[in-house]
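Lest this sound abstract, we think one record worth quoting, the chain in one-letter code, the fold tokenised, each line plainly labelled:

>
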Amino acid sequence: MTLAQQFAAYSKWRTQLSAGLEAFRKCLSENELSDAQTELRIRQLLEKLREDRLNVAFVAEFSRGKSELINAIFFADYGNRMLPSTAGRTTMCPTELMYDPGKPPGIELLPIQTRESNSSISDYKRFPDEWKVVPLNTKSAESMQEALRSVSEVVRVSPDIAEKLGFASGNSESSVVRVAEDGMVEIPHWRHAIINFPHPLLKQGLVILDTPGLNAIGAEPELTLSLLPNAHAVLFILAADTGVTQSDLAIWNEHIGAPGGRKKGRIVVLNKIDSMWDELKSEDEINAEITRQTNSCAWTLDLPTSQIFPVSAQKALVAKINKDASLLKRSRLPDLESALSGELIPAKQEIIHENTDAEFADIYLRMHSLVESRLTGLREQLGELTELRGKNKGVVEYMMGKVRIEKEEFEAGLQRYYALRSVFSQLTNKLFDHLGLDALRLLTSTTRETMLEATFSKTLSDAMKNFFSVARDNLIKSDGEIGEIRTMMEAMYRKFSVEHGLNLGAPSNLSLLRYQKDIERLEFWCDTHLNTMFQLMTHQKNKLTQKFFEEVATQVRRAFERANRDAESWLKAIMAPMETRVREHQIQLKRRLESIKRIHQATDTLEDRINELLHVENNFVSQIQSIEKVGQDVQRILKVSVSHRNLLSAA
């Protein structure tokens, strides 16, 4: 199965899962079982599926054939090159290829001058007026080619302006841009580009990140702090004839394969192996030479050879367009596509499966348990009324008194429930004292003041270290408080189960470990790019402070924002079962008492009431069957692997 077929299968699986969740939501609504919290949780699951993206980043120095590789893997069926692929520099700014059905096809370009502000690319995505939009005529290949050339545009500015925008100028090897004879320098015209294109793969949720070379990568911190780390796969492209050059190694060490960084999903592509196809050499000699280059690259980058793929993107593109199977095989691109389809998509599906399965299972069990409790309560009521057949008035009075006592005992037990709510509220406030954004804002403010008032480099360095130390400590404390809340809820769940027969199961869990890992990753970046002796000695205090808060503290804030959303959802989810079951039990006890009262007062005949409850019992049984059927359908879809041979033909 090709990458395109595998991705289509994954997209189809995701669509089926969404349809199953919609059917489950409809079933709950039709049976009057849903509540505001359940509706919110299902809607959030559906939104995650709708917004699900598969992010694949392509990283390389100039002239490595990166754009040609993107064309060969994803857009050969288009019959032409979608991205411009010519000699020299074709991508000057980070470029995202995606599809948003709410917008017409086009290219959104963010001016390079926006770097002067304190706002990130993500912030600017919320302000469409800041972007220049170039329409895309998808019916004309020539028109598209012309429009797509905009991502390679440059602008000439003075060295001072270039420096201000993050492009260090000079004539040394470390300089980002070179000064021309007239004293001007060329820098990218655009800071970021988003190409909205209705390609089938992009419609299904694929997002391709095409990055510029080393100099431009280093000048855009959000690329290395957020976009690249969050990519599901990073393809690092080298030239087969040169192997790993000094600039290639710099990109790898600084942005992709840094010590402690993850290796999974990192794939190295040795492109342009056709340059080694020497007619004076045998096929075995050519293959041996390619193998030697592969082994050399693996040793230099400290990767297993299984993660390095020699290919010819240009020959593969030609082969696919001309349907030349022999040339395609020789290009070796199918090996790379097989690795991507065999590892990337199943891994992505597993993430969706885990996230959806746990949440759905909790909702399903709660709803199923709710109907079962209603059915159990109704059958108790039926049993009580059936026992009254042929009994005298005194027995009816005894039964009424028994239910009244049970109701009073439960209401007395509610005092513990109300006390629980009070403690729960206190623990929640304590949790957000550490996890909340107010605490982070205070930390950010005090850190900024310390850095701006610092007179020594050590004070600046210590302030940055303290920022991460406090942020990490707040997450660790929050994790402890989450554990305390869960322990308290487990005890209360068990108590109500034993004393009142309320089967509440086990409360769901929440871990903040992923956010602790985010903080560690950001601290490592800061320690290698900002908080170094070289940076502290060569940059002004104000500029270094600005870079820290624009590039690092912003990412920390986003991590805390996501952690807060997770915590808020979890707190609602952990209390909802208790609230629902307590309310249901109160209603059932009230109905049992009223039913016996009506029999006692002879306002209803016993048989009429029994028949009425039998009809309700049938409705509850039907509700359970409906929930089980729809729930099993969702669980069946979740268990299907996209690599299953029958998935493409599934209904």
Summary: Confidence is low (pLDDT under 50) at residues 644-651. Residues 16 and 651 are 8 Å apart (CA to CA).
